[in-house]
Specification:
By secondary structure, the chain is of the alpha/beta class. It contains 9 helices and 11 strands. The longest helix is centred in the N-terminal third of the chain and has 23 residues.
């Protein structure tokens, strides 16, 4: 029987190697994949952005445009009153019917982004159909505003990994919302106000709709309260991080910390 005797120096070296291996394993287990920086080449969990992790008291006011546009002038007036900029996610069919309103929003300093061309459930479309749909709406937006959209909101909030991947392939970040006014249900002004101000926090993305009877009045109350609390109202494209970010399992977008590599002599 052979007996292997480790010298003291070798024992120390092997012990350090073992400790390093254990440390690397523990690190990989703790570093959950949902917190890795999102990129087209390195993503196993595809999630849209629901809100942004920020200490600044800023939020994004967003509208989905799929129905009517009778309240366009009222919405613009309310937003201007509070020096607020908003993001309008427009459906291609709405853009065709309401081109003048889309142009009014854009001319007032707001942004028009992609909400699909036909408002179909995106998870029921093939990849080719989804890319075609995104392209059709994007072309209409660019023709009206002169700017190519770079944010996408899935109709009905319906998404899966394929939808998010396709949107990224087409040059879009997928954006949802963290506060839903439910104004499309024709809630009262007070109900909409309570829903959208009760638990507000920095980095939230608020959802409203154009063409709903109580939205302009409720929006006025919401912005008045939040302005009094020190909030500013920015474009969704200004709120979110463009690069070097992570998205956790709850859809919270966070700025990624730079990797720190320590070297030892």
């Amino acid at each position: 029987m052979k007996v292997f005797v480790l010298k003291r120096n070798n024992l120390i070296i092997y012990s350090l190697i073992a400790l390093l291996a254990i440390g690397l394993i523990a690190y990989n287990l703790a570093f959950d994949r949902s917190d890795k920086p999102v990129s087209a080449a390195n993503t196993t969990e595809e999630l849209p952005i629901y809100c942004v992790d920020t200490q600044e008291k800023k939020i994004a006011i967003t509208f989905d445009c799929a129905w009517e546009d009778t309240d366009t002038d009222e919405i613009i007036a309310v937003l201007q009153k509070y020096n607020a900029k908003a993001t309008f996610f427009a459906v291609g069919e709405w853009l065709t019917r309401c081109e003048a309103s889309a142009k009014k929003f854009a001319d007032a300093g707001h942004e028009i982004m992609n909400h699909s061309d036909a408002h179909d459930y995106p998870t029921k479309l093939s990849k080719e159909e989804l890319l075609t749909d995104l392209a059709a709406c994007g072309q209409k937006i660019e023709a009206i505003t002169g700017k190519a959209p770079r944010l996408y909101r899935a109709p009905y909030g319906d998404y899966n990994a394929t939808v998010v991947q396709c949107a990224r392939e087409a040059g879009y970040q997928t954006v949802q919302w963290s506060v839903d006014s439910l104004d499309w249900k024709d809630l009262s002004v007070e109900e909409i106000y309570q829903r959208t101000t009760k638990n507000i926090k920095p980095g939230d993305i608020l959802l409203f709709h154009t063409g709903k009877k109580n939205t302009p009045a409720a929006l006025d109350m919401v912005l008045n309260k939040l302005e009094g609390e020190g909030y500013s109202f920015v474009l969704a494209s200004e709120l979110i991080y463009e690069k070097d970010y992570t998205i956790d399992a709850n859809g919270v977008q966070k700025q990624a910390l730079p990797s720190v590599i320590e070297t030892f002599d």
